[in-house]
Amino acid sequence: MRMSRNVAGTVFVVGSLTLTLAALAYPAMLGVQNASSSPSRIIARTSTGPLTEADRDFVVKVRAAGLWEFPSGELALTKGTTQPVRTAGEHLISGHAALDAECRLIAPQLGITLPNQASPQQQGFVATLTADHGKQFDADLANILRVTHGQIFPAVAKIRATTENSLVRELADQANDTVLDHISVLEKTGLVDFDSVLFQETTPPKLPAGDVTPPAPQPGAPVVALTPPAGSASPTPTPSSTVR
């Protein structure tokens, strides 16, 4: 099913919300006293190497991705009308459960505060899929997630190539394998509109910073864990890190 550029653009701004004070304060909660626009700026010296702003943002983005792609996978299991769509859902669930476990393991060691909610834009993606039915759900799942995975894929490679922190490198290795796996299973649904996907990947909408920033967690709130159903398959890698 092909989506026009206007329709595809509309999908990507569904759920945009007003910028909140919590979102504005989020960088400070991550340990940044004065937010900088320099991704290479070192914000902490850790036992596993220097941590830059880009490193910290990468860990947060991996966590936030799971907070919307995991429930999208759950929706695929119940709403998908074909086996390839349901299979994609299984991979989304298992892949992000593993990445989430890794994020929760390394974040305390790096002094990073993890969000408990996806960004408003990402929450909008889930709202779109929740409202969808039948073949429309299948098409939107395949195309929305294929675009977002295509956008993050080169970002993962850049972090892997530049980070000096061994924990961030391990997370990037795992994220690379997981994102490639998800791209592959989404394409196997046969529903990806590559013309529209390429346009969205190269011409993303210009949204306010608050729409693409995960809300800060409530002070003292426990970190939410993404836990797949008992007995579920694990088609993607499990966390690579051990207790350090």
TrEMBL record:
- Entries under Pfam families matching the protein: DUF4142
Q: Where is the DUF4142 domain?
A: 54-184
Where composition is biased (Low complexity), the residues are 221-244
* Region Disordered, annotated ranges: 205-244
Instruction: Quote the PANTHER family the UniProt record gives.
Output: BLR2558 PROTEIN
Q: What is this protein called?
A: DUF4142 domain-containing protein
